[in-house]
Amino acid sequence: MALIVQKYGGSSVANPGRIQNVARRVAGYRAKGDQVVVVVSAMSGVTDNLIGLAKEITPLPSEREMDMLLATGEQQTIALTAIALHELGVAATSLTGAQAGIVTDGVHTKARIQNITPKKVHALLDAGNVVIVAGFQGETPEGHITTLGRGGSDLTAIALAAALKADLCQIYTDVDGVYTTDPRIVPGARKLSEVSYDEMLELAGAGAKVMQGRSVEFAKKFGVVFEVRSSMNDNPGTIVKEETRSMEDVVIRGVALDKNQAKVTLVAVPDRPGVAARVFKALGEAAVNVDMIVQNISHGVPATDLSFTLDKADLAKARRLIDTLKADVGFREALVSEQIGKLSIVGVGMRSHSGVAAKMFETLAREGINIEMISTSEIKISVVIDLARGEAAVQAVHRAFLG
Amino acid sequence: MALIVQKYGGSSVANPGRIQNVARRVAGYRAKGDQVVVVVSAMSGVTDNLIGLAKEITPLPSEREMDMLLATGEQQTIALTAIALHELGVAATSLTGAQAGIVTDGVHTKARIQNITPKKVHALLDAGNVVIVAGFQGETPEGHITTLGRGGSDLTAIALAAALKADLCQIYTDVDGVYTTDPRIVPGARKLSEVSYDEMLELAGAGAKVMQGRSVEFAKKFGVVFEVRSSMNDNPGTIVKEETRSMEDVVIRGVALDKNQAKVTLVAVPDRPGVAARVFKALGEAAVNVDMIVQNISHGVPATDLSFTLDKADLAKARRLIDTLKADVGFREALVSEQIGKLSIVGVGMRSHSGVAAKMFETLAREGINIEMISTSEIKISVVIDLARGEAAVQAVHRAFLG
Fold first, then answer.
1. CB B54 to CB A79 under 8 A?
2. Which residues of chain B lie closer than 8 angstroms to A86, CB-CB?
3. Considering chain B, what percentage of its residues have pLDDT values greater than 70?
4. What CA–CA distance (Å, rounded) separates A197 from A244?
5. Which of B401, B400, B396, B395 is nearest to B184 (CA)?
6. Cα(A341)–Cα(A328) distance, integer angstroms
7. What is the SS3 assignment for A371?
8. I need a labelling partner for B134 at 20 to 30 A (CA). Which of A118, A202, A255, B317 fits?
9. ipTM of the assembly?
């Protein structure tokens, strides 16, 4: 008998029929004698509808009240899931985030979990129930309802798995697991049977949109082993866990392409201490998320070029800042390009294998693909290239490293 | 400065535009310096949609989970109402029933309020907020979400007004107040400026569907004076309060017609002790709501006819019982008619005026309307007549008593 935490996303519970499918899967585990905690998201579409209602009143609704509003989405799903389990003869009880003992800080719409006191969850499990917990939500110590922001339901599942010391945590989604790259770009892409937390984090940051990095970080911090798998079939998924020695036998775990970045180059920035700090402080204060930053040494002239990439969604905000920065910092001009792709290769094995970067660059050169920026971490190499060549680059690099 | 509790029903908050209208009204009271607690229902349609989702899974969903599901409707409205008030520059905070301190028993889907500890409501009011409370819901001492059943939001408002010792409780609805009779039947019907709790109760029981009797009983028990008025205009409504001496100057307060009753007559029931008890015990156990009961003395033969009325909605259940009862009790046959109307006149003044019943019966006789059953209370006289003559009867009786 194992204690399993299962999380089902919005498309897996999109309507009563799909909720009944989820219930059948849960009932199957229960029939084997496992204890099951189910974490569910809002039915897909529900959250957007609620946001739409609020936006009819004002473009900038209060964040506390948005949490009050949006928390109802998951609350509806937990009730319907419990009802579907009862219909299969399975004892089940639903709990809101607050009732499940999920305590957060007071930063509405993106609260952080402070602690979990799963007393009720334990009591209900012990009494033979499947416990269904609303994802994405919690309560402050003062009793205000909060939500956890993007990827919040994954976080609920992983945090509950940690608090309950669950034997297994399964994240059900609409893909079969984590792939060596996007199968729509490379038909020969393979599903990975396992991946380390750090690789998963780098893949998430590199544009492989399986999970938010935040939940993976939480899992890493608390050592929660979890499996990403599909709610549409019974295929085994990908296990995400601490790095093991054998993982290093594989040099590159995956290849990712992020098409949602734009590149900004500030030309002829004065090469003085504090200039870069002023640029990125201003961007940070405007909540512009900067990803890669590249600055090369200046030679001869006391000026250099400073490039960075950012989410395309933040580009409008960044452009508004650039004029102010130009007057303040004194660079010559700003070049902006949205026609870029960020290509990354990720693998804990690259640490112990030299020549990985060289092989990547050679592969791209052979395809005639120019590299505009390079950035590396211990287990990742990212390059910025022309967006139009992005998919060709993924195919070539996947072939070179993953066959 | 007064403390006012205002309740807005589902049609008053049906969409963001109407919620903004509610917010403007609340802001008007706030601008005069009043403290305002707002109780809201779910947006009209929301509750039915949620019930529909559950019924797609099973015809008989768990009541605990239905409460979990349906409580989200009001929770959405409180958040949107707070957002609309903020947009008008009015400080406002929403609270679920549980957060507002509304504690109920554990009878899911029709819980009874046990007590209210409005600590948070007081604190928020003192800090200058409008407090918006989700109607229709509460929480058990063990922390399960409950709902209060039909008319639950009115009950929330009246119970909160009692707990907060509010100066005024306003029930906003889609009618202007309580009328001497249905204005669609009698164009000359007049809005009553005041009515006693007992009259309101008898009118509710007589088919005047302004409010559930339950909320009126609660108001009477705790002496909460409330006003029924329209959310569509600024007309004063009807004040509902304890009977005053001057109320007795009016013999008849109102005339009501209930078209939703059916009549059952059990013919030739053995006239022995215990027979009526067996009949109504069986009906009660099947949750059939019986309204009027009439049995006349038997003369000569040891058998009598026993008639009763019940909600048409319960008729199918009652018919299923009748065969069993026939074998058990031994009456000759059961006559069922759905073509009846229950006509009632209500007024505390009738206690001190003789001849009211005679005047009512004479009026009906003059119109050629046959009386099938009669039942009276201290402040009400009800008769069952042919449904087809119902409206003519209301017009004649209204003319005779209310001019």
1. yes
2. 58, 61-62, 65
3. 99
4. 11
5. B395
6. 30
7. coil
8. A118
9. 0.86
User: B70 near B50, Cβ under 8 Å?
Assistant: yes
- CA distance linking residue B290 with residue B283, whole number of Å: 8
Whether the per-residue pLDDT at B235 is higher than 80: the answer is yes
Please list, residue by residue across A310-328, b when 16 or more beta carbons sit within 10 angstroms of its beta carbon and e when fewer do.
bbeebbeebeebbeebeee
**Residue holding tokens 């890493």?**
A220
Question: What per-residue confidence (pLDDT) applies to B295?
Answer: 81
Identify the H or E element spanning B79: helix B63-87
Residues of chain B neighbouring A19 (CB-CB closer than 8 A): 57
Which residues on chain B are in Cβ contact (under 8 Å) with A90?
Answer: none
Distance from CA of B28 to the nearest CA of A (A): 18
Contact between B82 and A65 using a beta-carbon 8 Å cutoff: yes
- How far apart CA B210 and CA B9 sit, in angstroms, is 11
Query: Residue A76 is nearest to which of B72, B84, B120, comparing CB atoms?
Result: B72
Alpha-helix residue ranges (DSSP H) falling in A45-192: 46-57, 63-87, 119-126, 152-164
Which one is predicted more confidently, A239 or A285? A239
Which has more pLDDT, B233 or A351? B233
User: Are B64 and A93 within 8 A, CB to CB?
Assistant: yes
Please tell me the predicted confidence (pLDDT) of residue B298. 67
* Band of pLDDT at residue B364, cut at 50, 70 and 90: very high
Structure token digits, residue A257 = 């392409």
The beta-carbon neighbor of B65 closest among A69, A73, A82 is A82
Q: Please check whether residue A62 touches B, CB under 8 A.
A: yes
Any B CB within 8 A of A11 CB: no
* DSSP string computed for B320-384: HHHHHHHHHH--SEEEEE--EEEEEEE-GGGGG-TTHHHHHHHHHHHTTPPP-EEEEETTEEEEE
- Give the closest residue to B159 by CA, choosing from B208, B197, B115, B194: B115
Alpha-carbon distance of A321 to B317, in angstroms, equals 72
Q: Please check whether residue A318 is in contact with residue A280, taking contact to mean a CB–CB distance below 8 angstroms.
A: no
Query: How deeply is B283 buried, as exposed, middle or buried, from its count of CB atoms within 10 A (0-12, 13-18, 19+)?
Result: buried
Taking 70 as the threshold, does the pLDDT of residue A300 lie above it?
A: no
The pLDDT value recorded for residue A165 is: 96
- Between CA A215 and CA B183 the distance in angstroms is 61
pLDDT at A27 over 70: yes
Please indicate whether, in this complex, the C-beta atoms of A57 and B82 are within 8 angstroms of each other. Answer: no
CATH superfamily of A3-174: Acetylglutamate kinase-like (3.40.1160.10)
Separation in Å, CA of A323 to nearest CA in chain B: 32
> How much is the average pLDDT of A359-375?
92
- CA separation for the pair A83, B56 (Å, rounded): 10
A53 touches chain B (CB under 8 A): yes
Spatial neighbors of A176 by CB under 8 A, at least 6 apart, are: A191, A229, A230, A233, A235, A237
- The per-residue pLDDT of chain A, averaged, comes to 93
What residues contact residue B139 under an 8 Å CB cut-off, 6+ apart? B97, B98, B102, B103, B104, B145, B146
How far is residue A222's CA from residue A158's CA, in Å, rounded to a whole number? 9
The share of chain A scoring above pLDDT 70, in percent, equals 99
Whether pTM > 0.95 for this model: the answer is no
> Can you say whether the dihedral through the CA atoms of B185, B189, B193, B197 is positive or negative?
negative
Q: For residues A278 and B81, which has the higher predicted lDDT (pLDDT)?
A: B81
> Residue A99: which of B54, B84, B143 has the nearest Cβ?
B143
Alpha-carbon distance B193 to nearest alpha carbon in chain A (angstroms): 35
Enumerate residues 88 to 127 of chain A having a beta carbon within 8 A of any beta carbon in chain B.
93-94, 96, 99, 120
Joined together, the tokens standing for residue B346 give 């209500």
pLDDT in tens, B2-50: 999 999 999 999 999 999 999 999 999 999 999 999 999 999 999 999 9
**Is B58's Cβ below 8 Å from some Cβ in A?**
yes
What string of DSSP letters covers B20-43? Answer: HHHHHHHHHHHHTT-EEEEEE-PP
